Amino acid sequence: MRRLPIRTTGTVRRRVVGALAAAALCAAGAVAVPASAASAESATEPKGATEAAPASAAAPALDDGLALTPPMGFNNWNSTHCRAEFDEAMVEGIADLFVEKGLKDAGYQYVNLDDCWALPARDADGKLVPDPERFPGGIKAVADYVHSKGLKLGIYTSAGTKTCSDVGFPGALGHEYSDAQQFADWGVDYLKYDNCNNQGVDARQRYTTMRDALRATGRPIVYSICEWGENKPWEWAGDLGHLWRTTGDISDSWGSMLSLLKQNLPLAPYAGPGHWNDPDMLEVGNGGMTETEYRTHFSMWSIMASPLLIGTDLRTASDATYDILANRDVIAVDQDPLGKQGSVVASEGGGWVVSKEMKDGSRAVALFNETGSSRRVATTARAVGLPAAPAYVARDLWQHKSFNTAGTLAATVPAHGTVLLRVAADPKWAAHPPAAELGLGDAVFVEPGAAAQAVATFTNLGRTAARDVTVSLRGPAGQDWKVAANGPTKAPAVPGGAALRSRWTVRAPADAATGSYDLTLRATYRSPQGTRVTSTVPVTASVATAPPGGTSALGDLPWLAATNGYGPVERDTSNGESAAGDGGPLTVGGVVFAKGLGVHAASSVDFYAARSCERVTAQVGVDDEKGTKGTVAFEVWADDTLVASTGVRTNSDAPQALSADVTGAQVIRLVVTDGGDGIDSDHADWGDPHLTC
């Protein structure tokens, strides 16, 4: 019931599956073939059979000392796909940059080739042939160059008759031992083994055969099972591969990254040294997300002990991209030798707390905000698993600064942002300045040209006093906002556990459009030792006009904020995944809606209700344009409270009437989730949505 991406030679990525799709195997409840059966197939069997193992080959359990921490490196696919710039010069240039930019020293070691490195046909002996235009010296020459830099080379193929590209490059199904030996002879150190064109052969059988083939070469090769999570490889691949994909393909969007993150988080018990959950490669630097979102991407992949495979072309990467990718404090979380994947401690209203146990007894803690506005996210040292102690040291891994805290771990986290901490019960806590939390007490809503009141709070979370405290609040840079203090903004000292509150008047420009704006809240203070600390957080002010009385079409009202899995949220048309206006009529189960919202999971659309509205109604469902594909769930939130949900809806379902009591809500949020299976073909329609005030 989901779209399987296919690789193409262009920028769109979709997967072609063989005669019996893996999804059909899942639907039919196919049973895995025992490992011994994987080696019993004859190499002369019809197309789709796995290759026979040599008589001397065995299938030992995977215990080879490889990938004891999550692999780190580069893969070209996210930045180049099959375009011409993927070639020998690029690969060698990436190896050079690993050394020149300090990425090798930071832990990155694999330079991996993805699809399209070979010719479409094998040679007369059935061997793979590197594309002579892309790789005129052959793969061994590239491997030799990469090895000369102290790095390792990875390569790609598929556990099918062809790879995922629509060109139709040869896959390894039926050629496992021959191809594995070629890879070993070339000096390959890492294999990504995809799942396209698999001819319906059982997944466990296919991936077991390649494991045995790699082991038979005698060369240590890290084995990446790219099965897309369809047959739950985390339950059976622990003795087959060093890592396995838990999700479909990532794309360079917030919705895609968030969906994969949520699919991977619950799988923490299956990860560990030599066997990692893989939610796909990094998109950091490719341009589809903000810098804040890319930091969240890198932070959350690291706390999940995920492989860190750079997916941007480092030859054109910005300094900001290098700063993210080379953050050694964050990398140390990913590469911790204990090998624990972070687990969810709390999740409420879009705020998440994820904690990862570290070998030295500390905890890495992510305070993650998935919403479109800044919000407070908080926990305690005890809640994340630390022992009782007089105080703790919390190091902010993006600020690279350490603070003492009495036990509270809290921050105002920007929209789509993450505060990543490393927290320890350190007896030397008093040597560090006290931690402080900055925030606005209530959300700020203001009409164009009007003023609103705000209360800024500086809270000392530490055991020691904060001295010479000064708080300031500023409007968006370069815009005509007026922000003025209504009272004191300074204090000579704020003891541990105490707070300084300052009141402010915030006036929006008369021409300000409806939406969310970042104000800058800043505090400066000194520790008892005299260390000066500056803390700055973006806080959200929303420009909005109260909705009219009576019943209004939601699609005609301005929204405060909107996020979408692919393309923009559409008014009165379905979502076409790319540019605005590329969708069709809103159609669910043959019923056409003239008014509404067309979205793609994961999606959230926020409307201002001004505490004056009572009810939201809509007819909801998966749009007909995706045929039998698409699984979603619809939710209505009143501020931070879920007030209505549909459960999972598929394309075979008729429109479902949805009604939600939103009495007293300041903000109403229309949410569409992916139904739990990734954001493939999840075109969702809010048909005829109305708001009654």
Descriptive tags:
single chain, alpha+beta, 8-stranded parallel β-sheet, 6-stranded antiparallel β-sheet, 40 strands, 33% strand
Q: How would you describe this structure to a colleague?
A:
The protein is an alpha+beta fold. The chain contains 12 helices and 40 strands. Strands 9-8-7-6-5-4-3-10 form an 8-stranded parallel beta sheet. Helix 9 runs parallel beside helix 10 and helix 10 packs parallel to helix 12. It is globular. It starts with 5 loop residues before the first strand and ends with a strand. The N terminus is likely disordered.
List the helices and strands and how they pair.
Blueprint: E1 6-7, E2 13-14, H1 22-28, H2 35-38, E3 72-75, H3 77-80, H4 88-100, H5 103-106, E4 110-112, H6 138-148, E5 152-158, H7 176-186, E6 190-194, H8 203-217, E7 222-225, E8 243-245, H9 254-264, E9 276-278, H10 291-303, E10 308-310, H11 319-325, H12 328-334, E11 343-348, E12 351-357, E13 363-369, E14 375-380, E15 392-396, E16 401-405, E17 408-413, E18 418-424, E19 436-440, E20 444-446, E21 451-460, E22 466-474, E23 482-485, E24 490-494, E25 499-507, E26 515-526, E27 532-543, E28 551-553, E29 561-563, E30 570-571, E31 586-588, E32 591-593, E33 596-600, E34 603-608, E35 615-622, E36 631-638, E37 641-650, E38 656-661, E39 667-673, E40 683-692
Parallel strand pairs: 3-4, 3-10, 4-5, 5-6, 6-7, 7-8, 8-9, 20-27
Antiparallel strand pairs: 1-2, 11-12, 12-13, 13-18, 14-17, 15-16, 15-18, 19-21, 21-25, 22-24, 22-26, 23-25, 26-27, 28-40, 29-34, 30-33, 31-32, 33-40, 34-39, 35-38, 35-40, 36-37, 36-39
Helix pairs in contact: 7-8, 9-10, 10-11, 10-12
